């Protein structure tokens, strides 16, 4: 009796240990396929980020040149650091900033890039643009629709001119276009990619500061009027009303109301024959959150924000999900096995949304670390090597995870690291193709952030060509058996080694393992002596 009692308790304790191990003790791959309702017209896209909305980590030389002008005293205002496009324009002054940005707009993306994108098998380009492209008078702060909103941004029609040129190039080479309002008045998230960085803001300015809501609606109306109902000659297949609004830093009710008001404007402008898609970002809300939103079968949900008589089908609304594995310590510390499993699970979860609405992964990258220079912001280091916590007000008790080898020349990358990058790309290409309405890679090119640079990854054989030429994955998103077995064994070995060494695995397991092994030891003692 004592034997079976001890055996039963041992089994329970071992089961608890496996549960608590979570990502550290991998189980068999789940190859379950989600029914795909969008087997035709799959989005295979790439984003032209850093062009009409500049980002420091994509083109650091642009911001270095601006800072040099400021430091040399030739700028309009040299009393602050340049960390985003807002401060670039503010510090340099309008004319100097305009010269610098106009040169960038004319050179960063050219017609040949559109030709190359099509030849490489993509069918869509995502074009980010900031609200300031619609500024009409920089001296008085006049915008379209007779809205006055003061900011230092450069415009003079430069961005809209390039956008129109991009649409012509896309049409010439048979590419579809998804226009993305990447920066909103007051910033919708505090990220530098919105145009204006604020690392520590508890609440951001969009929909909060005076005139930000009014100006946003005017710009939405202009976008819908200009790019809807253009017939078969139009290359614009989607309009994303705002990129990455950060719900926790916004008034969420106000944000939801603005989404619905934008949709009402969209439908009032759209002819029955027009098939342009209304695109919303998930606002960093949980997967599945949007399933009953914008659904004519759930008017009780919509009714909280909008009473509309407009007829529509739920497939006219597409939800854009963004996914990266590098912006928390927990993600960065995970094994390659768990990283790949995360992608598969994420894609399958999106697949469950498709009965409610189309959904794409509109941003993803090849990054295994956050080491790219200025990825976290000008002057901000990486979490991976601990520099992030030395250059910000944020704190962690975790130790640095490793060295930033990804910033070395690709030729100097260890063979194993190259293989992991390729596996990570393939996991996303195959899983997103199999389970979602498609994908859009971020980004087409950078100056030196290789893991975020499609052209560089392709050059070094890390991005499949053709796009479904997989070495490690099947087209249904499953991992090839030999790869699965090898990575599973490595992950298990690493987990056991870390546990024996008492090394923190950086995912907040605390001392749970120690308590379990202590209980196990006590149980064995009781079984022996009693």
UniProtKB/TrEMBL annotation:
Residues 481-501 have a biased composition (Polar residues). Residues 1-21 form the signal peptide. Pfam families: Cellulase (PF00150). Gene3D superfamilies: Glycosidases. It comes from the Eukaryota. GO terms for molecular function: glucan exo-1,3-beta-glucosidase activity. Keywords: Cell wall biogenesis/degradation, Glycosidase, Hydrolase, Signal. Residues 481-505 are annotated as: Disordered. Residues 108-367 form the Glycoside hydrolase family domain. One of its GO terms (cellular component) is extracellular region. One of its GO terms (biological process) is glucan catabolic process. PANTHER family: GLUCAN 1,3-BETA-GLUCOSIDASE 2, GLUCAN ENDO-1,6-BETA-GLUCOSIDASE B. Belongs to the glycosyl hydrolase 5 (cellulase A) family. This is Glycoside hydrolase family 5 domain-containing protein.
């Amino acid at each position: 009796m004592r034997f079976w009692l001890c055996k039963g308790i041992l089994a329970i304790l071992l089961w608890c240990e496996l549960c608590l191990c979570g990502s550290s003790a991998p189980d068999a791959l789940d190859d379950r396929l989600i029914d795909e309702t969008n087997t035709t017209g799959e989005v295979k896209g790439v984003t032209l980020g850093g062009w009409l909305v500049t980002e420091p980590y994509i083109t650091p030389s642009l911001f270095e040149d601006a800072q040099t002008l400021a430091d040399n005293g030739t700028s309009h205002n040299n009393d602050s650091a340049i960390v985003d496009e807002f401060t670039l324009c503010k510090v340099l002054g309008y004319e100097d900033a305009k010269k610098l940005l106009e040169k960038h707009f004319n050179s960063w993306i050219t017609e040949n890039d559109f030709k190359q994108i099509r030849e490489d098998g993509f069918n869509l380009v995502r074009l980010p643009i900031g609200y300031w492209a619609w500024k009409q008078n920089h001296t008085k702060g006049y915008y379209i629709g007779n809205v006055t909103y003061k900011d230092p941004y450069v415009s003079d029609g430069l961005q809209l001119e390039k956008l129109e040129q991009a649409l012509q190039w896309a049409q010439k080479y048979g590419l579809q276009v998804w226009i993305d309002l990447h920066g909103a008045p007051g910033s919708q998230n505090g990220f530098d990619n919105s145009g204006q960085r604020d690392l520590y803001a508890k609440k951001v300015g969009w929909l909060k500061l005076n005139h930000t809501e009014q100006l946003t609606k005017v710009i939405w109306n202009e976008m819908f009027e200009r790019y809807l109902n253009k017939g078969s000659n139009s290359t614009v297949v989607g309009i994303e009303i705002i990129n990455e609004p950060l719900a926790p830093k916004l008034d969420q009710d106000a944000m939801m109301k603005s989404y619905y008001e934008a949709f009402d404007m969209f439908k009032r402008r759209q002819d029955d024959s027009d098939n342009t898609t209304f695109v919303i970002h998930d606002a960093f809300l949980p997967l599945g959150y949007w399933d009953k939103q914008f659904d004519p079968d759930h008017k009780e949900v919509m009714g909280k924000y909008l009473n509309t008589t407009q007829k529509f089908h739920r497939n006219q609304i597409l939800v854009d999900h963004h996914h990266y594995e590098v912006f928390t310590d927990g993600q960065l510390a995970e094994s390659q096995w768990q990283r790949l499993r995360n992608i598969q699970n994420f894609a399958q979860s999106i697949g469950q949304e498709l009965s409610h609405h189309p959904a794409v992964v509109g941003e993803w990258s090849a990054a295994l670390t956050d080491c790219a220079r200025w990825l976290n912001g000008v002057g901000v280091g990486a979490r991976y090597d601990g520099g992030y916590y030395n250059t910000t007000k944020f704190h962690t008790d975790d130790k640095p995870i490793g060295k930033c080898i990804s910033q070395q020349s690709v030729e100097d990358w260890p063979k194993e690291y190259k293989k992991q990058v390729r596996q990570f790309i393939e996991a996303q290409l195959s899983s997103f193709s199999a389970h979602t309405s498609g994908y859009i890679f971020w980004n087409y090119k950078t100056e030196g952030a290789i893991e975020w640079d499609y052209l560089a990854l392709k050059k070094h054989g890390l991005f499949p060509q053709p796009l479904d030429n997989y070495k490690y994955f099947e087209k249904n998103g499953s991992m090839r058996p030999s790869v699965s077995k090898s990575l599973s064994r490595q992950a298990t070995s690493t987990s056991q080694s870390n546990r024996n060494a008492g090394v923190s695995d950086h995912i907040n397991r605390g001392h749970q393992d120690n308590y379990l092994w202590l209980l196990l030891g006590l149980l064995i003692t009781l079984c022996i002596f009693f």
